[in-house]
TrEMBL record:
Identification of the protein by name: Flagellar protein
């Protein structure tokens, strides 16, 4: 049947549900849970901008891999002075959100970006490393 809708297995819990064909293939229960986790991560980072990804995970009970997925999807964008960053999927450069750094996205052909399904909001920017260095030296 493919991913165009119909009966699908939830990627998160494995339960069967009627998938509309839009967004991630997860059931309504998991979507609600995901939204609650996302809000708690977002609020925690807003209140504790200098928290590390491990601290955010520990304090919110949300797994690091899920926090990183919020960043990759461009749903969560962190401030310049945050010690949290992820890496460009092509060159490994530190970025604040998304899947690719601006440099790799700019040099990659449109066909290649389409094949990898990289949306514009998944092109992240580098953290301001001078602030990061100050943070680490403290």
């Amino acid at each position: 049947m493919g991913m165009n809708g119909g009966l699908q297995s939830c990627l998160r819990c494995g339960n069967m549900f009627i998938y509309s064909g839009m967004g991630k293939c997860i059931c309504e229960n998991c979507k609600k849970e995901d939204e609650a986790e996302f809000q708690s991560v977002k609020n925690y980072i807003y209140e504790h901008p200098s928290a590390t990804i491990m601290e955010v995970s520990k304090e919110t009970d949300v797994r690091v891999v899920r926090i990183k997925s919020y960043l990759k999807d461009g749903r969560l964008i962190i401030s310049d002075d945050s010690p949290i960053f992820i890496n460009c999927e092509v060159c490994g450069e530190s970025i604040k959100y998304g899947r690719l750094c601006r440099n790799c996205a700019d040099t990659m052909s449109t066909e290649m970006r389409n094949a990898l399904k990289v949306e514009e909001y998944q092109v992240g920017e580098k953290p301001n490393m001078s602030i990061r260095t100050r943070f680490l030296d403290r």
